[in-house]
Design brief:
The protein has about 170 residues and is mainly beta. It contains one helix and eight strands. Strands 1-2-3-4-5-6-7-8 form an eight-stranded antiparallel β-barrel. Strand 7 and strand 8 form a beta hairpin. It is elongated, with a radius of gyration of 21 Å.
């Protein structure tokens, strides 16, 4: 973590003298994102000026389970440099996980196994507030690193905890 903070602060100081308006004039971005509070999967960003919006999600299916990730995040530009944008974010991520399992039970009286199909549904909500950096390269691509602090709520177990949020994304912008 110390190395990451050192790298980020070094890049800020090195580019501080080159500060200027965002050289990339795009509003829309498509990409892949993975984050605790900003979601997992395919992502779309609309960031016309200082304030932006990000939607991320993916459904994953198998024969006995469903995993769905849906997220909505707010973005606000803090500072634009030539190829780096520092921004704040507020991420909201809902996870739905459903799995079915067959449980074999032995009847001690008859010695016969019986099958029972059990389905588990789990809902988790993660939210975090933090800071991120967008690194623009190859004119049409940018890589994003974000970190923040937030909370996670497990609705099935009726419990919550605080979390450290780490997010990353790769975007094609147009």
């Amino acid at each position: 973590m110390k190395k990451f903070l050192f790298l980020c602060s070094t890049m800020l100081f090195l580019t501080f003298g080159h500060a200027q308006n965002d050289s990339v004039g795009y509003k829309h971005s498509l990409g892949l994102s993975a984050g605790v509070s900003t979601g997992l999967g395919f992502s779309y960003r609309y960031w016309p000026k200082k304030v932006g919006l990000q939607v991320t999600g993916i459904p994953i299916f198998s024969s006995n389970s469903i995993y769905t990730s849906v997220a909505l995040s707010g973005l606000i530009t803090i500072k634009d440099f030539s190829d780096i944008r520092m921004f704040g974010y507020f991420g909201n991520h809902l996870i739905y996980n459903r799995s079915s399992h067959i449980i074999l039970e032995l009847d001690p009286n008859t010695g016969v196994f019986t099958e029972t199909n059990v389905t588990f549904n789990n809902y988790t909500y993660n939210t975090a507030l933090g800071v991120g950096f967008r690194f623009n390269f190859w004119e049409v691509l940018d890589f994003n690193l974000q970190t923040g602090y937030g909370a996670s709520f497990d609705f099935n177990q009726n419990m919550y905890r605080t979390i450290f949020a780490a997010e990353a994304g790769l975007y094609y912008h147009f």
